[in-house]
Amino acid sequence: MAETLFYFLVYPGLLFAGVVGGLLSWFDRKVTAQVQFRKGPPLLQPFYDFLKLLLVKETILPARGAKITFLIAPVLGLFGATTAASFILLPMFNINIGFEGDVMVIFYLLTIPSLMYIIGALASGNPLASVGASREIKLIVSYELTFLLFFAAVILKADQAMRMSQIIQIQAQATPFIGSISGVLLLIVGLFCTQAKLGMVPFDIAEAETEISEGSFIEYSGTVYAMVKLTKYIMLFILPALMVAFLMSGFNLEGTGIVWAILKVLAVVLLLTLIRNTNPRLKVKQAMRFFLIGMNALVIIAIVLTYLGL
């Protein structure tokens, strides 16, 4: 029991994933600043932002709405992200306590934060938050199918292995999946799905600061918004880590393998950052068409190529 709590709360769960995610948030903001010819924030700025929300800012509850649901939603979102972090990172750190089918459990756990954002927004009673929730629902309907097909394609490439540790081992013993044509296509699909799940431009439709003033999160402040911020930090780490596990043979934490592990995650985050800095925000219809037609077609092609051994 104590060991399980340690994995969940400290390493590689809440504390570890939150700290690494905060550092990746700084990396994302620093690269964005360089692209825009700015200096950018100091290294610890994401942690200052989090601690200021947690310890200084007042938590203001909406006058109208379901207050208990409003408060519980960020907690459940953080729980989903932390549990997903444990399931993803433990096999990557050679701690094999997974089970058959844990890959599909990870898929569902990664959906929890987005669903909680929707529930929290609807519980706030704010019309702008409701608009953000409506947009988030439409986005989920579009990209989750693509994300599920992405998982199916990886399972197919791994000889139908549905255990995270097995998928990593198969690549370590042969060739990383990214070394094939279908693997490159899956990388493209996975990047855009990750972009949408993180709410980054061009898929920040549910927040859209210039249109609906943070949308889903407009009523959040103080401690509860700190939980939202921490959830986003964790997701910024575990989604790129999932891409590394599925397509780049995971981590090898021995010798120079540690450096390569860091570079793999940074490379994925760098691609996400460059995408969000070189594209405008899409409309809801454009985003849905992009996933339901373009990305689904691409992942289906990757599945066919996998059957052909390419």
Defining key terms:
globular, mainly alpha
Please describe what this structure looks like.
This protein is mostly helical. The protein has one domain. About 70% of the residues lie in helices and about 0% in strands. It is built from 13 helices and no strands. The protein has helices at about 1-10, 15-35, 45-55, 65-90, 100-110, 110-125, 125-155, 165-175, 180-195, 210, 220-245, 255-275, 285-305. The longest helix has about 30 residues, at about 125-155. The mean pLDDT is about 90.
Task: Summarize, please.
This protein is mainly alpha-helical and 310 residues long.
Derived structural class: mainly alpha
Overall number of structural domains: 1
SS element count, helices: 13
Low-confidence stretches: none
How much of the residues is beta strand, in percent?
A: under 5%
Mean pLDDT: 90
Report the radius of gyration as a whole number of Å: 19 Å
How many beta-strand segments? 0
Tell me the distance between the termini: 44 Å
Helix-strand blueprint:
Elements: H1 2-9, H2 14-35, H3 45-56, H4 67-92, H5 102-109, H6 112-124, H7 127-157, H8 164-173, H9 181-197, H10 209-212, H11 222-247, H12 257-277, H13 284-307
